[in-house]
Amino acid sequence: MSFLRLNRLVITKEGKEVYNEQFHNGINIIRGHNSSGKSTISNFIFYVLGGEFNTWLPEAISCDYVIAEVTINGKILTLKRDVDEKRSRPMSFYYGTYEESKVSLFDGWTLHQYNKSKDAESFSQVLFKFLEFPEISTDNQETITINQVLRLMYVDQLSALDSLMRNEDFDSPNIRQAIGYLLLGTYDDELLQKQMLLRQRRKELAEIDKQLKAIEDVFQNSAFEFKPEKIRQEKQKSEIALQKVLDELTNPPVEKKTNQETQKQLEVLRAALVTKKVQYAKVAETIEKVKLDILDSDDFINILKEKIDAVNLSINARGAFKDIAVSYCPVCLEKLGEPEDGSCHLCKQPRTADSSDSKVLRMKLELEMQLKESKSLLDYKNLVVVEKQGELLDIKRELKVAQSNYDVFINQSRTTTESFYDKLLEDKGRLNADIKFFDKELALYDSYAEYRIQKESLVSQISTLDDTTTRLQSEQKSKSQVAFRVIEKYTLELLKGDGTYERNFANGYNVLIDFYRNSFFLDGRNRFSASSMVLLKNCVRFAIFFASIELDFFRFPKFILCDNIEDKGMEEPRSQNFQRNIVQLANSDQFKGKDFQMIFSTSMISTELDNDTYTVGSFYGDDNKSLKL
Length: 629
Known about the structure:
There is one protein chain. By secondary structure, this protein is an alpha/beta fold. The chain has a domain at 4-184 and 497-609: Rossmann fold, CATH 3.40.50.300. The chain has 14 helices and twelve strands. It has helices spanning 38-48, 58-61, 98-101, 123-131, 146-150, 173-184, 189-220, 228-250, 260-321, 356-410, 418-496, 503-506, 530-550, 572-586; strands at 4-13, 16-22, 26-31, 65-72, 75-82, 91-94, 109-112, 154-155, 511-514, 519-522, 559-562, 597-602. The strands form three sheets. A six-stranded antiparallel β-sheet has the order 2-1-4-5-6-7. The protein has a four-stranded parallel β-sheet with strand order 3-12-11-8, with helices on both faces. α14 (572-586) links the parallel β11 (559-562) and β12 (597-602). The chain is elongated, with a radius of gyration of 37 Å.
């Protein structure tokens, strides 16, 4: 259940405010003659909330910045984007009101790019956290952004009449379907996580199957033995034979006689031994250093988690106690007088919009980013330890061989019995090679056995995940049926309120919404007169909006922006009738006391709606454009 409200929109040019209007909860109507700048204001609202827009009119592109103070789920923040013809512009955040943001041009502002990166969150990710939206990717790994979400919240003039959502370049049916599921609240968070985990586990299983097949091919097409017990027996025989050779070399049966050639070989063996010892010491030292760093990282991560828990506790406590009225003075215990409307119970000062919740949430977002970066660094350090331990094992094995070579050679020298020693050294080298080969065979078999264990575990996990996702999909389907039934109810109610302009509307009985095909149908058809198509599209879009107010499980943030109330030859009485119908429905008893915001523009405002309760700004015309350039 999410809620988004635009509190104020400010547009600047060369440091001057050329538009500055406050919006209110409920109904907001921007009215004026055609070509007076109503659509420009609508496009600016779409853009500053995160929409992708760059087809500005000359008057609009001459502006510098568009700024919006918004309330998202009770948190106040100010958004700012520079006006540019380039796509994918970043967004600046100030965690407080617009008036507070004007105190400093830089302090307190944070900049987030359009696209996310490894080290920084995109502005869509930040807004999704405020909206309490999960991050969703399609089966093709396409990511949903705030721009995609706004496609269902903004009814613009340029999209095709039969398009359910705002048209987008390189449109993807999977993205549209995911947007629909997200905003209707039928996309279950748990189902999302399970499906993502299921895809990951299947990917891991495919990789393990590939590794198992590769190892099996090695055993079948090479000299490797596939029976570990037989390998160990052969290795043991070679080790016994090697020890016998070493004993004969260490205790030579003939008198040793050292010559210059022997001394030279001894120096070579000594140098090789020293090199391996130095390598071993360096790698061991690196491992110990990284392990100490890991301990420090673990401590830091725990501290960050404790801080995040403390911030969450602070947010919950503030939400629970901030509206408690104080009836008695805590100093003298005398009963306090009744406060004036909007004043503090204790100090009697007027209560202003509190942005501290937003600042606390900003602190939480920064801590979460630090936690994410620290975990990523910890994973890297653990990987370094694993790699260095493997490297240390290889060096240790090589060091053992170098030490053995040196120990044997230092106790023997080449004499007239060179052929005898040559044979022993040749046997020693061969036996060492055999043992190393057996070790590789055993290591390969151990890897094979480990992969088999992992495969069995993954198969079990996949089976459980399959069952869980099937159950959750069934629950999702049930929730979807409720959502579409309520949308159909409001669509038909608004269509029947159209009167006699379109006979098929009055007799309509079935409404179908197809996010995947980006279309909608009334009784199986979506071809009517142009003006009737405008009305049908608006009825469907406003029906989704009204359904989000009625059904708590909707994520659609109870916000709609419509710049297409009349178009394609729409007659004035028909447009005004639709305006009255949506306002009447919004003011009905079922929606009283509920937060929502409806913003629409019209050049044919109904007389009874043209008052300060509903309108924003003045009536725009040729001599009074929306932008005061």
